[in-house]
């Protein structure tokens, strides 16, 4: 019954073994003429597939994804893969979340959809809430710590997460989902398959979904999501050639969750943004100051309605994203195959934000230093008024992946590949006005809405950030694949050569000591400001004077590492095989790092990754046990900038902690001993260590990172999924244990310095006032366990053959834990946290024909 119901939502692609990133990688890994996975690759067990390739990869199919909750991000299912840890911000997935793979953060993992790279072109962030609806996903593939030779990304040191779209069905059909749940959750999904439209096999599908629910903390705040998807597929001949075009549009309007200090949650278990905002009443001849309204009680005091800094209506995360994905394969001659995957993406998004501005602020007074700007229109310039200042990012991105594959003979194949990726990244922060209730007139501030836009006295746009960059990747790569000794040995050798550059155009003045910016005319700087040349360096190595600024500048930064890889598979006998691999990977610095200085060029992060393992693969069992060692040079870690005053508020900020290493093992076994029962337990262990302390210019220890474990990385994690099929009724259970995690680079060990005499106290900084918060005084977040249950009943006995009802309960025991962590260098730098979702229920009905 399970397989029958799932079959109405997926296509024949689920049995093709197409689990790699691009059409080129699929072709070289899954073509029967030179078997890597082809005939040996089963449909998996319980939706889990272990491909027989020379690297650690796990695949989850639609069979597995369909049990993860209607509308939830597919990343939530990845928690059942060893070595992967994903923390969902809310129970339904629209608020995003944090991904970790073998200690690497999400911005060091390449995310691909039908081969199209989806990481942010500026800071490489992954936006899990903007991905395709789970119903249109055929499979999700995770490479742990390795890449493919044509991976089109300058930041993939931690591996790859890749997902593929279903192929439209040959017969006409439709599928409709309706679901409701806790926190006023409601969702509708509909999909139409056209069936074969022409005599030469053209077929298509079209889908639409809409979703709405409330936040589970705080007094107010909703999350809305609308999504469109479509794909047209044209087979060519009978040898696997095809042309396909797919499209996607996603619109989110989200009230954000407040990342709080541990002490915030100790005081209020359900800490979040406040639900109201009181602004001053305009009055000519009197002084209005919206900052004064926030003086008593602080920004998170629910009783203080003037504390608008954390008002939910100003802490929003609107996004509009779209892409067009092409895929194609052509057999040019016997043994010669060409693949071409073009794509285009568009993004417009921000993280909200607010600030109070004086009507005589230098930035507002313009080039002629006018008296000021009457922001509240009361006829004077004596006020300080709250405005909306979101940091808008607009991206236009163009991608093309090509591969030319030549089969030398039945046992040897070569590939040459070229990847092109150009991201035009425009980042601005046009200030906007608020209405009487403290809400922005436009969620994008003054970017497009002229009525909302704040203008300087000289008529120019009042900006908090103004920069433009082009991220350009030209990559060439080559790969050899062969099999020897009667197919007992499969060998792959590869070389990836990315030529990556960032062309930067900073239109604001940049403070040398902090990297903060001031936008506007030269006269908007403080009177004491010193504008230094772009080749300025501080000869003493000490902190630059606060009055020193770089003038607006342009610069180009280039990176061109050579990244070799090799792997081998030894098929021992029958279902048994062992494998080993080596790969060098690279992650280039983000735009935020490069814009902080007109002169400093940070090094990129490189890793050398070694791994090996054993596999057993049959129709009843899919199992893998692997071990790995990763050596890092110039390790880069990331944290969310939670400072509302910062020009990079709401974005990920990178920092370097030097060299490091990690090693560990992972195991998973998916078993179906009888037709009615399947289960897939897994376990993961990782031992991590930063090698050295971070030193200052005079050799003093700035951070005691030597010997510290990686932030946000559990040493142990394990769990399982189990399914029982009783015919018309199925039951499922899903469990995961996530071990304790550190929230700071120094693991809470950097010593405190007294203000009185500058001497260090022989005790590290500790967190206080934690109460029952799930964290220790040294910033180590407690381990946690979650259990999810689901049940499904078919209505076929009532004559509705392709209809079922389902019920799901997440976090059954209502575990209270910190999920997302916005890490920091030390505890004194205030790491921030989000609690995990509480017990949540969801009911669904699916109808198909």
Automatic annotation (TrEMBL):
Main location: membrane
Topology term for the membrane: Multi-pass membrane protein
One Pfam family of this chain: Plug
Record's keyword annotation contains DNA damage: no
TonB-dependent receptor-like beta-barrel domain location: 312-812
Lineage, highest ranks first: Bacteria, Pseudomonadati, Pseudomonadota, Alphaproteobacteria, Sphingomonadales
InterPro entries cross-referenced by the UniProt entry: Beta-barrel_TonB, Beta-barrel_TonB_sf, Plug_dom, Plug_dom_sf, TonB-dep_rcpt-like
Keywords: Cell outer membrane, Membrane, Receptor, Signal, TonB box, Transmembrane, Transmembrane beta strand, Transport
Signal peptide location: 1-20
Protein name listed in UniProt: TonB-dependent receptor
Organism the protein comes from: Sphingomonas arantia
PROSITE patterns: TONB_DEPENDENT_REC_3 (PS52016)
